[in-house]
Specification:
By secondary structure, this protein is of the alpha/beta class. It has one domain: Aldolase class I (TIM Barrel, Alpha-Beta Barrel). It contains eleven helices and twelve strands. A seven-stranded mixed sheet has the order 2-3-6-7-8-9-10. Strand 7, helix 4 and strand 8 form a beta-alpha-beta unit. The longest helix has 20 residues. The structure holds iron/sulfur cluster. The site of iron/sulfur cluster has 9 residues, from loops.
């Protein structure tokens, strides 16, 4: 793996912590090799060259240690938003594992999103953080079908492995659920698939599913996505162009109806789907466990 230099890692969330209650963000890698056909992080606005080749941030752990010890305000640190922090190189280099150790030692919480079941390697640390702080794990699952996930997310484990990962995390008392984003119009938006995904989420013990029933498309990312549509879904690119033109937010047709069905299914199984409820559930649980341990 290549390494790049960085001077800072943690950035304070300025716009309010309404995205899963995250207070700070950081990325230990730049770029990602999971190959998701819809990945927003390959958009030109982020200026990431050779996006498909992940690069580790040199001295990331030394920088993080210094930054964490200098923060007066503790909080939840978000990981994995611009690149999956469990890329295959993580197995060897352990930047994510090292960062989790530091968060744990310094009394910070974590909000981590990934598609890889490599996260299970770090169950011990996630459990340790959860026991005394706020921790939430979001596993992205966009389809209940392994064959389809193998096409749209080709270089990471298939959906069934991700459901298993959720099961193992929740069995260990870690607050984990699903990011069902994006929902790809005409590909992953079938009513029966949404219902099946919610059912499998329930069976794996997922505490929440969050979705906005759309995909966002812009510049470089749109070109890449359309190239993959031509390769795997003949005729669909033309349909997108007719339906969405140059639109950024491409909501699935019948979005409102589908979202209603989704929320009804979630409620049936007691799965949270509203952001505010998700945040207060995982943060409140920590407060409760703190009180219990004091008792
Ligand atoms: S795992 Fe995330 S960052 Fe990596 S290619 Fe897929 S969508 Fe992009």
């Amino acid at each position: 793996m290549e390494f790049i230099k960085t001077k800072t890692l943690l950035s304070k969330v300025k716009y309010g912590n309404d995205w899963f209650g995250v207070d700070y963000n950081m990325n230990l890698y730049r770029g990602c090799c999971h190959g998701c056909i819809y990945c927003d992080s390959r958009s030109s606005c982020y200026h990431i060259e050779d996006f498909d080749v992940p690069k580790g941030k040199e001295n990331a752990l030394a920088i993080l240690e210094k930054e964490l010890s200098g923060k007066k305000e503790k909080g939840v640190v978000g990981l994995g938003s611009m690149s999956d922090t469990y890329n295959p190189f993580e197995k060897q280099y352990e930047l994510t594992r090292g960062a989790l150790k530091l968060l744990n030692e310094n009394g910070f919480g974590v909000s981590l999103e990934t598609k890889s079941d490599l996260i299970l390697r770090d169950t011990d640390l996630l459990k340790a953080i959860s026991e005394k702080n706020n921790a939430i794990i979001k596993i992205t699952i966009t389809t209940p079908h392994d064959d389809l996930s193998g096409v749209i997310e080709p270089h990471v484990c298939v959906s069934s492995k991700r459901f298993q990962a959720i099961k193992e995390l929740t069995d260990n008392g870690i607050f984990a659920g699903i990011l069902m984003t994006p929902v790809l119009p005409f590909i992953t938006d079938r009513e029966e698939d949404i219902k099946k995904l919610v059912k499998l989420a329930h069976e794996s013990g997922a505490r929440f599913i969050y979705t906005w029933m759309s995909v966002t498309l812009r510049d470089n990312q749109r070109d890449y996505y359309y190239e993959k549509l031509d390769k795997h879904f003949k005729g669909l690119k033309e349909k997108y162009i007719r339906y969405y033109g140059e639109r950024y937010n491409c909501a699935v047709p019948n979005r409102n109806r589908l979202y209603r069905i989704f929320t009804e299914e979630c409620s049936r199984y007691g799965i949270l789907h509203d952001m505010k409820d998700i945040i207060s559930a995982y943060k409140k649980e920590t407060e409760k466990s703190k009180q219990l341990s004091l008792f």
